[in-house]
User: Which sequence fits this backbone?
């Protein structure tokens, strides 16, 4: 029995995968030049390039907020705008960091399922050259989305094409990129390098790291001043080796895929079981590691009371009665089955 | 033999203390609410309060840049100014982060030994109420200083008194606060709470942590919106428990003191030995864990070649021929003696 | 015949009222202390207070962008948010200045007619205390709106009440406040001081000034650091007397009212005539000096060709076929009748 | 007798030259497209190009703060630094606007007479490529300086050469550029285009305008996004014709030169007379329109009491007993003689 029972509230609530801790322990010897000029960092960069190609320029940062916002700083001047889904983490969960730090305006687009289409994006590419309007510069999508849906490579390519036609760039918030790739059973580069993505964030924390995310530049010329942006924006780690060794552990072998596909599998197990429960509906297609279920309000209350974790799930939409259930690398089949039983009892 | 020999270039080049890794491993179980609403964070906050008093409001962040700059964001509006020594890390090693992120102007003061006196600070409190001038709001000092010197409690009190007389606040960059307290053989609160400090950064990374620093507010009312500042400024960790457990390990017992006093002792051993070498002078009094030595230029070259680490020391002032030698929690007597021998041979 | 025929594209296209130029000429004697410490400025401040009450704190700035954005800087910290209509000038015509300069997030609300209701605003007051979300702090409306509609005093009071209930403030972009007051036949203070407004911009440029707008604080305590904000945000005029004397000319007598009511009357004359033209519809109620008319696309083209001014009107919505026709202090009945004839011919 | 006697406190205290007001009155007819797409603006741009060459890209703004800070926004990214004299207006009189708005760090250099030499500037070009340090990008000088001294074309060329060698740019704060050119009896372009300057501010307000300054780009490629920067930074005038017509009046004929050379002549008359007064010394060479005189403290007090203007001069350095006496386009010989008499009586 653990002191802190597992729940389904957030993939941030899980701990670090044991192989990650082992990698950190192994890197904890001697003195290593701080701030990234070390062989652990070089090795991690090599791992990124194995996945994303030789032109990939990866930079490790502390967290997803940093990864996304610093990417926008590098991609856009403050008078430029970022077209993104209204549900984007950038838009709703960063306390206004993109606006305050990168200075940009977000042009938020309502979507059906968290996915921006190239048609929806195209509608917001207006007033180009008009000095009174923030100039569209970045299209930003989340992969997987905040609603648990996944873009196909073709959908991403279409957005990249649109962006490039307008001399814009495509940014991907890949906090759950590993989950998307595992879900589609494609290599990571199929959703990034090969699909025309210019810059993406690669999420580590949500996929079993202790701490750490990365910004990866794919288009040459965009990264040249990023070291200064990272430092000035307070995201340069002094003991960089400890970020690097985690990414090496994640990407050097198949840990990224094991963790992600396990979380996805648990989400599917959960979704399948939920589909059989009366009065509970899936709110969005379950394509990665997130399950959104709509159920009667009083059932939500009962479910919360019945589950052991201090925050067992997240109420996504109080009015609609939708809860978010995130599966993670350490979710077990028993956890899922227990939740399903509690859910069935609650409704 | 290690793959990465220890050197004297930076206290950031060392790894994490084994007790810190052990604490992380112990905290790596089950699910814990992300972003700080968890019992590990509560325990860490309790440890800070044991040291700094019941009104202390500690907030953990990723690194020292974040700790210092976010403190300034909380303390000053952008039209306000920060009086600090010209050698302050804030002024010379943050790539302009205070100006760009907090918006403030730094009023940098030349000092003899890295220490701001209340007389020097008072000279910069001018043009109060003049709308054309940045308004002095913060006095900021580093403890220990970037030159390895240490403020006494009385010196800090004098600065606090000056600041408070002018409705300003006193900020301490305590990246090496533990070293200062150990050096003076006083409790941490003697240099902070009891000396009238309003806000300080508490350095963890340089004193044996894997990653993590903290901002600690001592004056009531200053911290109320800090959670939003921390999030918007990209320094809110999702898996906060892993920052927290490190601080609990550092501050809950005497690890902070063991690490710091060991590093200080090594610096004194080094300084004592250096004092006996011809043509090598100490540039500043050795009071904490940093030793600044001035030697002939060609000797610097020879010394670098003779030492095993990839970056064995830091050339502080090429013109003057001053090198910086930092001792850390893992520096051994053999390391020091080896350096001294190499130094003697090089000159 | 003038070299530059009058049109209906913008109230910014008109020149300065002759009484404004006369006031400038009269103030152009001798030396006057720069930056606002002069008797012209004192007199202008007095005029503001006659209209808005003795607690009004007016600050003159260069333009409407400055007035609105500096007000937000004074009212909100960067982690706070501003609820405004999606059509707000702040949201669509300032090239992202609120986000980049004040750092805030705009929470844009779709409205039927450019007017925010307290119900619509209330829906956006969510996640208070949640560190991941920009915190609602300001409700901002435009009076008259960008769509030519006008808030009644009661509607403003309802918004003020809502704001104050939530410890928020109500800001009014009063670029056309004079038009609104003239339209409703109420004193300026009925729409501001008496309705619970906390801060507003007062538009001069659109109502006959050469250059100049103002920020007026009505709630005590909000303005105390505004002089520094104005200077640092580059909106402090050195030869302040020339801004001041214009506002004295505008507000000291009835010029503000004459100009605004004339423009409104011309808009009504235009709207009445348009109502009689087949295939032309008014898009919004005509309540101040703006007329929005929807007509067939090819008629828009023909109308533009037929009119003498280089930019005779503004195409507001190309898809819907809506044009914006602004009347101003110098619009004549002949101008209106000429436009109506051209419009009738074009459709 | 005027209501507001002329003094010597500031060239901002004077009014507008009558020809400027006449130009404004002449431009006050009909409707003109707002925001700069009009023939007055085109004509003003043509005047700038006559002086500064066909590649000059002039942009008019409201004031000197705007001109200087927006130039820095265009020239530097926030992680870059600006090398300037410690006495630069940018450094001491803009309430921190360069830091807060452009995000840059100022590297302030002590000088003997307000003039940066290429040797002094070169000393601050350090740590290039070091991610911890703000990267030197701009050398900024004031012409004439804040101390009334003037750079020769050769001195400027040397600074330009230094800057360009290091892939930096040379910026000139030309709030008093006209005074400098008149003083040296050279065309304006000798101090800018021909000397290798990349961007400069051209001061109008201090040289007889009502309101208005300009940013002029000389190096191709630097100005391309300036329209957006100007708008977002709140310095785009809607009734641009009124800024434009003033610059046309100033630069189209010799008004710029008449005003500046008159002010300079008055300063020399003043300096000559002062040189003959015992116990009064000139603090700096008098080369443009500013005179700095050092006199006994009690004489300063008596002088202030004796003179009629509300702020007759500016105490530059209370400790040294130095006062600043600025001559302007409307200073008369009688004004100078009266001041000299009062000064002689006061000491």
Assistant:
């Amino acid at each position: 029995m653990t002191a802190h029972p597992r729940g389904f509230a957030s993939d941030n609530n899980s701990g670090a995968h044991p192989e990650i801790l082992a990698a950190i322990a192994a890197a904890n010897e001697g003195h290593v030049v701080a701030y990234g000029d070390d062989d652990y960092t070089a090795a991690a960069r090599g791992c990124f390039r194995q996945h994303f190609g030789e032109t990939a320029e990866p930079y490790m940062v502390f967290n997803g907020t940093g990864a996304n916002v610093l990417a926008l700083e590098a991609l856009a001047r403050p008078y430029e705008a970022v077209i993104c889904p209204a549900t984007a983490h950038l838009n709703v969960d960063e306390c206004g960091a993109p606006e305050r730090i990168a200075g940009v305006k977000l042009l938020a687009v309502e979507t059906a399922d968290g996915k921006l289409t190239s048609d929806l994006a195209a509608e917001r590419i207006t007033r180009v050259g008009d000095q009174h309007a923030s100039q569209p510069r970045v299209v930003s999508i989340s992969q997987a989305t905040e609603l648990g849906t996944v873009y196909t490579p073709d959908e991403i390519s279409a957005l990249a094409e649109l962006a490039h036609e307008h001399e814009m760039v495509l940014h991907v918030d890949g906090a759950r990129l590993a989950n998307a790739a595992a879900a589609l059973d494609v290599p990571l580069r199929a959703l990034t390098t090969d699909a025309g993505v210019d810059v993406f964030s690669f999420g580590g924390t949500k996929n079993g790291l202790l701490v750490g995310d990365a910004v990866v530049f794919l288009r040459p010329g965009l990264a040249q001043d990023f070291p200064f942006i990272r430092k000035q924006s307070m995201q340069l780690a002094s003991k960089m080796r400890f970020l690097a060794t985690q990414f090496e552990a994640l990407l050097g072998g198949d840990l990224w895929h094991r963790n992600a596909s396990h979380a996805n599998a648990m989400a599917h197990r959960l979704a399948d079981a939920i589909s059989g429960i009366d009065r509970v509906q899936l709110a969005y297609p379950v394509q990665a590691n997130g399950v959104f279920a709509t159920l009667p309000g009083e059932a939500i209350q009962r479910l919360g009371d019945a589950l052991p974790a201090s925050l067992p799930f997240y109420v996504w939409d109080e009015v609609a009665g939708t809860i978010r259930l995130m599966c993670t690398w350490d979710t077990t089949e028993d956890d899922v089955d227990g939740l399903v039983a509690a859910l069935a009892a609650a409704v």
Notes: Chain C has two domains: 18-251, 256-346.
